[in-house]
Design brief:
The chain has 495 residues and is an alpha/beta fold. Helix 3 crosses helix 4. It is globular. It starts with a strand and ends in a 17-residue tail after the last strand.
């Protein structure tokens, strides 16, 4: 059986003393084993990355930009191959995998402008003969701990900006689908990145804790569930590191009575069930304003659900693949089967749908008359389950969203410009869509939520990532003539 090893300084390394299984979610069969790094192994990788980072930080900006431009081209050329790797371990359909790669490429394109992004500021003659300028310098070695649901996009969100800024990266991907990270590491080196600047270590909590505790790691980026994000933030910040830890979500989509209900229903189905709901920007709550709006939406969504094609991600006809593990499938199903006892109405029960084989497939579910306090509403299900909450007014809808502990993304569907503009200002969420169900910013902006969806001050990728992966230094300069030198014990003045 294939053994997926760490990728360190350009080489496949790692003992097989501790390993974990890697499954094909479409068949339920184990396809490989992945090595789990010990804390000692992680420490050794970090030590080697320190040396590689020093040389990379001394590399000229134009040379760094050349590497990113080549990486972008390689991602385009190898997209089909990389998408197949994603599907083999994650299970998502090929079209979805290619979409993930495309969104990752956006950040490589953004980071390719590093010559401009890393410019400092300069002020001349702030006082007699005194100039001031700023520098942006790399943090050093940074940790990137990434989730299973986007095994290419999220590592590119982190690594492209970190590398552009002159850092070395220790990438710890999910042990559920680790091969994409190794594929990316090899592409980076093919693009000209020196060996050791990007290293991949696989593992469990032991490997993660070693990254969080190492005094040689200056910053940590994380994407995952809220409980783990909070834990990552507290431990890494407690060790004096910069941290951006993105947590869970419960994204609401408000539909006003004046909205195009057919368009809204299309958007809700796409955003709720795409990638089997395993994405932090999935719409999991449909907030219908008015009873007529709710009845119409439930009917239209139900009609569309019947036409969805669920099957292996390798099948071009499939629109949705399996969930990541058998255990996760059972957990998702429990929210649907348990909803009636809480007073909700299961309109479409995806748990009853049968599939051939032993894969981790589940049908899509629609649950109506959901209310706050129900588990199907409160928890991040991370599966193809769409809840419908009925409200009487715009104000009630906004209050519902703002009361939620998650604040990652939200959307409103309306034809009224005044309502849309008001929504932008009223809503307390990090990313907002106006007639856009998945408001994931393009690479030139930054991604991140509020409240329990983000721990730390910096959002991921885009302009905020440049700030996160660099330290600013202010230099004040004066070249006096020898005859002007004198002793002055007063506080420095700019006059």
């Amino acid at each position: 059986m294939e053994v997926i090893r760490h990728h360190v300084a350009g080489e496949a390394t790692g003992s097989t003393e501790r390993t974990g299984p890697v499954f094909d979610p479409a068949t339920g069969e184990q396809r490989a084993e992945v090595t789990f790094a010990s804390s000692a192994e992680v420490d050794a990788v970090i030590a080697s990355a320190v040396e590689a980072q020093r040389a990379w930080a001394a590399t000229g900006l134009v040379r760094r930009a050349d590497v990113l431009f080549r990486m972008r081209q390689l991602l385009v050329e190898r997209a089909d191959e990389l998408a197949a790797v994603i599907t083999s371990e994650h299970g998502k359909v090929i079209a979805d995998a290619k979409g993930e790669i495309s969104r990752g490429i956006e950040n490589v394109e953004f980071a390719s402008g590093l010559v401009n992004l890393l410019k400092g500021e300069h002020a001349t003659q702030v006082a007699s003969g005194v100039d001031v300028h700023t520098l942006k310098q790399p943090v050093g070695v940074v940790g990137a701990i990434t989730p299973f649901n986007f095994p290419v996009m999220v590592p590119l969100w982190m690594a492209a900006s970190a590398i552009a800024c002159g850092n070395a990266v220790i990438l710890k991907p999910s042990e559920k689908d680790p091969s994409s990270a190794v594929f990316l590491a090899r592409l980076w080196e093919e693009a000209g990145l020196p060996a050791g600047v990007l290293n991949v270590v696989h593992g469990d909590k032991e490997a993660v804790d070693a990254i969080l505790d190492s005094p040689q790691v200056g910053a940590v980026s994380f994407v995952g569930s809220t409980p783990i994000a909070r834990s990552i933030y507290e431990r890494a910040a407690g060790n004096g590191k910069r941290v951006q830890a993105l947590g869970g979500a419960k994204n609401h989509m408000i539909v006003m009575p004046d909205a195009d209900l057919d368009g809204a229903a299309d958007a809700a189905v796409s955003a709720a069930y795409g990638s089997a709901g395993e994405r932090c920007m999935a719409i999991s709550v449909l907030v219908a304003v008015g009873a007529e709006t709710a009845d119409a939406l439930v009917a239209k969504v139900t009609e569309r659900i019947g036409n969805l094609r669920i099957g292996p991600g390798t099948d071009p006809a499939s629109e949705m693949g399996p969930l990541i593990t058998r255990e996760h499938r059972e957990k998702v199903a429990s929210y649907v089967t348990g909803a009636p006892a809480e007073g909700a109405t299961v309109v479409v029960d995806g748990t009853a749908q049968e599939f051939d084989g032993d894969g981790y497939f589940i049908g899509v579910s629609l649950v109506d008359h959901v209310k706050p306090g129900m588990k199907v509403y409160s928890d991040e299900i991370f599966g193809p389950v769409l809840s419908v909450v009925r409200v009487d007014s715009y104000d009630e809808a906004v209050a519902l969203v703002n009361a939620n502990s998650f604040a990652n993304g939200t959307a409103i569907f309306t034809r009224d410009g005044g309502t849309a503009r008001r929504f932008e200002l009223d809503i307390q969420v990090g990313m907002v869509g106006i007639n856009v169900p998945l408001p994931v910013p393009i690479g030139a902006f930054s991604f991140g939520g509020w409240k329990q969806s983000l721990f730390g001050d910096s959002h991921i990728y885009g302009p905020e990532s440049i700030h996160f992966y660099t330290r600013s230094k202010v230099v004040t300069t004066r070249w006096p003539l020898p005859s002007e030198s004198q002793i002055d014990l007063g506080f420095p003045s700019n006059h």
